[in-house]
Design goal:
heterodimer, A: mainly alpha, Arc Repressor Mutant, subunit A, 2 domains, two-stranded antiparallel ribbon, 3 strands, 54% helix, globular, B: 2 domains
Chain lengths: 136, 338
């Protein structure tokens, strides 16, 4: 049996919990873990599992809904939507580079060597291109 | 009675060792803390207090063997063991470790209840069959029949024939089994697993499954006991001489011993790495290491920090509703019966 996908957050991280949850679920959506039309766990269930307030998970789902990943319906929970890759805006690439710089600085500050960071980024990029994004 | 006193002492002494290794007397500690000199001293002192209480209770029961004294001694022993636990909790608190802040959640479907739907409905079917048998043989029900047995297995409580009196046992049994079923469902759906990945995740899931299997076994035991009292004891020609079958008297202890041993072995062999995981509940929300009150935590049940099983998160408003329903549901048949 295929093991269930897992999301992990750090309550001590400076990144808000709702943002971490949204990022973790987005990563699963990008690599196609959840097929279109599949329901995600309910807000209440995810809040219990992660030990956070319901509103925190609801906010994460709202962020993903605004990005077009999820359809939030009353009584039906969060349903994965078919989301074609949007045309990138002019600011998208500089914004990505800026965020990568910040992430790299954070990783270096945590003691990771530049080579390790580069290898990690390459591995993530390979995963992404091998996954759903390549097909889109 | 002396056996019960020994059982309370043994279970009290074992209770702090049935929690995850990084929870010691209700406090989150580093995994290696338990093996240290301070922890051993706390354990020793707690064990001495628990057994001194048992010896004192046994001495009083032997010198004045009245039922009221025996019951009082068991209660006193339990309260005394709780005080000893609270003292140990207070001593360990300054040594609390900072637990991990990592939280994990599996996005797949939940585990199912052990035994499936049929297995979980079994106790209710046993009770239903017993009630149906009594209903079909209503004329043969004697005017007075035994409804309570003492610790030696002899009948010491009798009830007159009436609909509430005859079906009281089945009603109480059904309510208790429904509580077990609800608790099992709630533990699966409204309780957090501290880890869901790796060997640690497997371990937490196995412990939860043993707890759920133990609950199911208790439900079957209660259903069988009540079915026996409804069908066998009620229609026995010599009810006053009838004793509870030995297997029914032994089964609860056997179940307790097997469940305790299983969880003890699992806790001992757990692989612990990095910062303590504990049960992902903050120490500051545990009152005396026994009661969990956390308004920010949406869980309904959490694993107990002393002994086996689960306890309500009293910070969750739903927990008060659950507790009230449990108490009222048990009280109604007791109040209505003659």
């Amino acid at each position: 049996m295929k093991p269930a996908a897992v999301i992990r957050i750090d309550l001590a991280s400076p990144v808000p919990a709702y943002r971490q949850i949204a990022n973790a679920i987005r990563a699963l959506l990008v690599d196609g873990t959840f097929p279109v039309g599949d329901p995600l766990p309910t807000v209440r269930r995810l809040a219990v599992d992660l030990g956070v307030h319901h509103n925190t998970v609801a906010e994460a789902y709202r962020v993903l809904s605004e990005e077009g990943w999820l359809d939030l319906r009353r009584r039906h929970g969060a349903i994965v939507m078919d989301r074609s890759r949007p045309r990138p805006s002019r600011e998208a690439r500089p914004s990505l580079v800026q965020r990568l710089r910040e992430l790299t600085a954070e990783a270096q500050a945590a003691g990771l060597a530049p080579g390790v960071i580069a290898d990690s980024m390459r591995a993530v990029a390979t995963e992404l291109t091998a996954g759903k994004l390549k097909k889109a | 009675m002396l056996g019960f006193i020994a059982l309370v002492a043994t279970s009290s002494q074992l209770a702090p060792y049935l929690t995850p290794r990084d929870i010691f007397f209700g406090v989150t500690v580093s995994p290696e803390f338990r093996a240290g000199a301070f922890a051993r001293r706390v354990s020793r002192r707690y064990a001495v207090e628990v057994w001194l209480l048992a010896i004192a209770a046994a001495a009083i029961v032997v010198t004045s063997p009245m039922p009221l004294v025996s019951g009082g001694m068991l209660l006193g022993q339990t309260v005394g063991a709780s005080v000893a636990f609270a003292r140990a909790w207070s001593a360990v608190r300054p040594h609390a470790a900072v637990p991990t802040t990592i939280r994990e959640a599996a996005m797949g479907p939940r585990d199912g209840l052990p035994g499936g739907v049929v297995g979980q409905l079994g106790p209710f079917l046993i009770l239903l069959a017993a009630a149906a048998y009594v209903g079909m043989h209503w004329d043969a029900v004697p005017a007075r029949f035994p409804t309570h047995w003492n610790l030696a297995g002899q009948a010491d409580g009798w009830t007159a024939k009436s609909i509430p009196g005859v079906f009281q046992g089945v009603a109480i049994g059904s309510i208790i089994c429904a509580m077990y079923l609800f608790t099992s469902y709630a533990v699966l759906n409204w309780t957090r697993l501290p880890r869901v990945t790796g060997e640690g995740g497997q371990q937490y899931r196995r412990v939860r499954r043993i707890n759920l299997l133990a609950q199911l076994a208790w439900a079957y035991l209660i259903a069988i006991l009540i079915a026996w009292t409804s069908v066998v004891a009620k229609f026995s020609e010599n009810a006053s001489e009838l004793r509870l079958p030995l297997v029914i008297r032994i089964a609860p202890f056997a179940l307790l011993i097997v469940g305790t041993l299983c969880i003890r072995v699992m806790r001992r062999t757990a692989i612990l790495e990095g910062p303590p995981i504990g049960d992902t509940t903050p120490d500051s929300c545990w009152v005396l290491g026994r009661l969990y009150v956390n308004r920010m935590d949406p869980t309904l049940f959490v694993e107990r920090r002393m002994g086996l099983g689960y306890t309500l998160n009293l910070g969750n408003p739903w927990s008060w509703l659950v507790a009230t329903v449990f108490v009222v549901a048990i009280a109604i048949p007791l109040v209505l019966a003659p």
